[in-house]
């Protein structure tokens, strides 16, 4: 048994045998370190952080997230650092009886999840073996902005070569060269409900109209997307902004999402837009999906003047107000303004001089 496993306090969510074996291997290689009562382990040698750091020492962390005395503490077990921004890697045990297991969980329903430093929550691996394979790919950080594209740091890929060989030899797992995007599905919904939020089954879909968890599997017949594509926007909303608004609330693989990718000059592979994260970021755009549906777009690479017809490329917030009318909400002190456009939310980040530095489009407010 590794020093880390011995040092961890008892918890209702057991450390899976596969992960315990991986920690044994890491310790046998001399990877990691720490004090006797606070050890840590890594899948690579040296002190440079080239991947997740498995450790304990998360006393009070769950209470800070969810409050004291909630069920989250019995279903969620932190096991390490997912990223340098404070994102935490944890094991989550869904409650199958309550229906939050989704589908295709492992035999015990234990999944690897991340709770981000800015309140985001998502799943990164469905089973313990999936977690080992993910670690063996070679990402410096197991966070949603990194997954869905090849690892950015070659040194990190090389650093886990030995671990990758061990995973393959021990469990017969073929480690891919990149990992699918983080899944904002069952776990995300569970966290929101634990925080007391009112969570719909899926944006713009009722509970029985074919909403699905996980990556788009090709079974969606496109009827809802086709209907969504027929939405008419106010006459003052004209230009490339319509392409972004049309794509919101539709599934990855929809004609509207394909049109968005074409606008941004982002080639789409078999994994859809969710697997084009790095190419999107190179265009100054980030996208978030909820249960396979495009829920949020953050746009820095296209100015509001380029997105909205009849505005100059360097349009400032007052130009937008003159064009769209007064926003539904606005804070000059904190630098933002928000309009409701056809049931969608158009949020502008505004600099002190009135420059619009970012455009955010959302199906629902956070």
The average pLDDT value, as a whole number, equals 83
**In order across it, which strands form the biggest sheet?**
1-2-3-4-5-6-7
Shape: elongated
Work out the number of β strands: 13
Terminal Cα separation, in Å? Answer: 43 Å
Helix/strand-derived class?
Answer: alpha+beta
Discrete helix count = 14
Beta content comes to 15-25%
The portion of residues assigned to helices is 25-40%
What's the story with the biggest beta sheet?
A: 7 strands, antiparallel
**How many structurally independent domains?**
2
Rg over alpha carbons:
22 Å
Compressed to H and E, one letter per element, the order equals HHEEEHHEEEEHHHHHHHHEEHHEEEE
Low-confidence stretches: 102-107, 201-229
Short description:
The chain is α+β, with helices and mostly antiparallel strands. It has 14 helices and 13 strands.
What can you tell me about this protein's structure?
The protein is of the alpha+beta class. It folds into two domains: 3-192, no CATH class; 223-362, no CATH class. The chain is built from 14 helices and 13 strands. The chain has helices at 3-7, 17-28, 61-66, 72-75, 128-137, 154-159, 161-171, 186-194, 223-229, 240-247, 255-264, 277-282, 304-307, 317-324, and strands at 33-35, 38-41, 53-55, 76-81, 88-92, 111-115, 121-125, 285-290, 293-299, 329-331, 336-341, 344-350, 356-362. It has a seven-stranded antiparallel sheet with strand order 1-2-3-4-5-6-7. A six-stranded antiparallel sheet has the order 8-9-13-12-11-10. Helix 2 packs parallel to helix 5, helix 5 runs antiparallel to helix 7 and helix 10 packs across helix 11. The two termini are 43 Å apart.
